[in-house]
Amino acid sequence: MSAIPENPASTSQPLLEVKDLRTHLFTRKGVVKAVDGVSFSVRSGETLGIVGESGSGKSMTALSIQRLLPKPTGHIVGGDIRLAGEDLLAKSEREMSSIRGRQMAMILQDPMSSLNPVLTIGQQLSDPLRAHRRLSASDIRNAIRRLLDMMRIPAPETRINDYPHQMSGGMRQRIVGAIALSCEPRLLIADEPTTALDVTVQAQYLQLLRDLQARLQLAIIMITHDFGVVARICDRVAVMYAGRIVETASTGELFDRPAHPYTRALMQSMPSLDRQFDRLPAIEGQPPDLRKPMTGCRFAPAALMPPPSAGSSIRSP
Amino acid sequence: MSDILLSVVNVSRHFKVSHREGLRRRSATVKAVDDVSFDVGTGETFGLVGESGCGKTTTSRLVLLLEHPDAGEVRFAGEDIHALRGDALLKYRLSVQAVFQDPYSSLSPRMRVSDIITEPMEATRRLSARERKQEAGRLLDMVGLRADAADLYPHEFSGGQRQRIAIARSLSTNPRLIVLDEPVSALDISIRAQIMNLLRNIQDRTGVSFLLIAHDLAVVRHMSRRVGVMYLGKLVEMGDSDELYAQPLHPYAKALLAAGAPIHPSERDKEIVLGGELPSPLNPPSGCHFRTRCAMAMPRCSEEIRI
After folding, report:
1. Is B117 helix (H, G, I), strand (E, B) or coil?
2. Is the dihedral of CA B224, B228, B231, B234 positive or negative?
């Protein structure tokens, strides 16, 4: 694996460091090596994109960082996760629940299922504030108003009493963002936050995240399969395939000179607006079964341009 | 354009809804589809794009006879489809099939693949076990699946393979038109290209027409020669896809194109992002529906529609 290029603008210590993370799922049908030796780091004020298809291990990586793996199947079997220098894998369950929400927060794909339909958004926003910050009732009300304002929700006074179904998808996802940011976390993990939104609303949401990041010096991990999202928000990108990172690069570098055959194939198979009405170069076949042992490059069976030695050793891109 | 197969002529579909305002009930009308016209030629793909709530799915439901228009008519091979009865109606239903967005909910989990894909054929005649096997094999081959898939259940397949099964089912009656409602948006990007290519190949081989409904402009660009853009129930722009993508005329089409375009990271800060939300279709803005989000809006836009 090649060394991860650092963001030249920042010289500070990384906020989050993940080293050789291995997460396995112990299922009845065998052990799935969902995350198989993944390393990366994120600095404050920086956005790292993790790109891959479903089953590539990107969401499992996010859940491992939060220690929210599905129980009892998911286990972190090796590696190291450090947030601001602290070893997250050595924390007790209790310590983790005070870190989640306060130090790092998560935004999930579907705002309809991550909000509770029978509570008003004011009630849902006050939960984390009460749990982590122990504010008084009037302070909570002020904090909520500030959060809604920050997320550019029009008429926050009346919106506090609304239920999720009274809002549009874009507004709901901004509420989810407000909940995530309510306790001023330093790391935000966003798992496909815009996939369920319309394109024009998606562009709006990403712009808002970028503004907030600059203001709060947030570190963001953006999990996505959409290179449009990557281009709009990420500073650096890690491309995942079959449980491993196959390529890490700055976003500009990745768009101009994708190194790994998988990255190249992925970018080519994307329909684009300036390409004519024609056939797309598709990646044929299916991703490999992660229960089976693999040697060499995991993309080799599907690779469009298999290098001669791809069967014997893992090639760095 | 080649000969016209489907013709949607000034079609409107309005829904009466009642909603509560305090203690009072008020009724209102949602103009889901409002005076929409377009044609789909034989062997051609017509793409209909727009954001959620713009009426594109209601339009497809009108074509599939799942909705009745309040005004206007839908003509298929010259005949008003909502006036068809008896044999002519059955014939229409067999000639027009659909593929939906989510291949997880559009296939019955309790049926074997062979039964799923041959079920539409059974609308007209009973198949013997041998015929069913033979037909299933033929259809699976058309969509690039192995014949032994016939005996399996949908849960044994990935999303892309399930969408292939849904396409096989839609082909079983030798349709002349297939309505594709977001056929690839639930699939992974690498699989999307496979399915889009498959659909193009099937069209080349069978001459079937597609009415493609999608919110992804790039998908529509690849699949169709002609495109219509919908906003709040109205078709705001329609044309040849090369021209429309090179030079969109309506400000909404421009904004939609800009937001959907895969930009280069260096252009990030130059991007113009459409502000505001889609207005409520219960109470759309007067005059031009788009004026509340339009960069080119001027006072007279609240009174008249300029384009």
Report:
1. helix
2. negative
Residue with tokens 């929210």: A68
Q: In what order do the strands lie in the sheet with B79-80?
A: B24-41, B4-21, B71-76, B79-80
The helix/strand/coil state of B285 is coil
Closest partner residue to A251 (CB to CB) among B158, B255, B265 is B265
First and final C-alpha spacing in chain B: 24
For residue A123 the two structure tokens come to 């009630």
Tell me how close the Cα of A227 comes to any Cα of chain B, in angstroms.
7
Report the amino acid identity of residue A316.
Answer: S
Question: CA B203, CA A110: separation in Å to the nearest integer?
Answer: 34
- Residue B213 has which token pair? 């409904």
- Who contacts A159 (Cβ-Cβ below 8 Å, separation ≥6)? A121, A148, A153, A167
Give the residue among B85, B169, B69 at the shortest CA–CA distance from B122: B169
The single-letter DSSP state of residue A132 is I
**What is the reported pTM?**
0.81
Q: ipTM of this predicted complex?
A: 0.73
Task: For A171-216, write each residue's pLDDT tens digit.
Answer: 899 999 999 999 999 999 999 998 888 888 888 899 999 999 999 9
Q: Mind telling me how many Å the CA of B111 is from chain A's nearest CA?
A: 24
